[in-house]
Amino acid sequence: MARTPEDLLATVPVVLGFVPEESVVMLTFGAPRCFHARVELPTLAEEVMPMIESLVEPAVRHGVATVALFGFHHADRWTADVLRLLAGALRGHGIGVVTCLRAHGGRWWRVGTTAELDDRGEGQAFDAASHPFRARSVLEGRVTLPDRASVAATLAPDPGGVAGEVLAGLVEPVSVTTRRFEELLRARCGSGTPVTDAEVAELLVGLRQGRCRQAVARHLRRDTARGQVDLWSEVLRRAPRERVPDAAAAVALAAWVVGDGALAWCAVDRGVEVEPEHPDCAVVARLLQRAVSPEGWEGSLRPLAG
Questions:
Q1: Which residues fall within 8 angstroms of residue 199, CB to CB, at 6 or more apart?
Q2: Who's near 120: CB < 8 A, 6+ residues apart?
Q3: Which residues are registered as beta bridge partners of 108?
Q4: CB under 8 Å to 292, separation ≥6 — which residues?
Q5: Which residues pair with 25 in a beta bridge?
Q6: Cα–Cα distances in Å, from 127 out to 7, 123, 134, 135?
Q7: Which helix (H) or strand (E) holds 166?
Q8: Residue-averaged pLDDT of the chain
Q9: Model pLDDT for residues 250-269, shown as the tens digit of each residue
Q10: CA gap 65, 27 in Å, rounded
Q11: What is the rounded CA–CA span in Å between residue 299 and residue 56?
Q12: N- to C-terminal Cα distance for the chain?
């Protein structure tokens, strides 16, 4: 259980999966389904209120009782002012703020309700990397990457990719049957065996077909979703640019189901970079923005997917 500011600061990268920078982080407590959120720290005044609304709305909707707020940035006064505005908005909705800290360079400072109450000076030193919480997460097999860019790098394009003629040789929509698509899913998810160029091409063609996307949803369960994360990540890395959004959406959905919000957002970002209005990427983005819990996937959401 987190009892001190250092405990909470060590918890943040563990629950996010990476060490945040230039970020605002909110940990929530006391709700039927708590969630944790990270957003980019605004750099312009006009960006502050949209950022606050993006965090307050799901906190209110989920019935959050209390939050802990963190700002990770070198700009001390700006970071403190942004956190103060966010804390005030949350309190205005009856949500308690148990901790409000800004951190940078291995030190933290407390942010008060007014600037006069802010901590000053050199701050308090902390080392999240050597904290017992981090050590326990390693023993549990949880990976914490050094920054968000490292998460995005796991989905970066493979320079080799899939040969264009392999994909071009498949004629849509009759070239990949639902049975063949499901066979590939069963054979490759979690198997650790290499996926051939021809199989990547078949999977990419299948993702353009509604009946195959329904198969993805049918086979996506919380206890086995990590296998789909790995498979679709491999397909995404090797996909030609015009097929990136389809594969990115598959990664994003599977990552959301296993609770890896950081990877899900990075996958959405890759997809919308190529196709800003891609519908499946938009669906996962809405799930993430609204802090919808993946616990509801198998009960009510999976029958609607695909």
A1: 184, 188
A2: 109
A3: 103, 124
A4: 286, 301
A5: 38, 70
A6: 10, 13, 10, 12
A7: helix 164-168
A8: 89
A9: 999 999 999 999 999 999 99
A10: 11
A11: 27
A12: 39
Pairing of strands 96-104, 107-110: antiparallel
DSSP letter for each residue of 175-186: SS-HHHHHHHHH
With tokens 């109450």, the residue in question is 117
Kind and range of the H or E run holding 67: strand 66-72
**pLDDT for 63-77, tens place per residue?**
999 999 999 999 999
Contact in structure between 190 and 232 (CB atoms under 8 Å):
no
pLDDT score, position 203: 94
Q: How deeply is 51 buried, as exposed, middle or buried, from its count of CB atoms within 10 A (0-12, 13-18, 19+)?
A: middle
Q: From CA 214, how far away is CA 244, in angstroms rounded? A: 19
Per-residue pLDDT for 2 more than 70? Answer: no
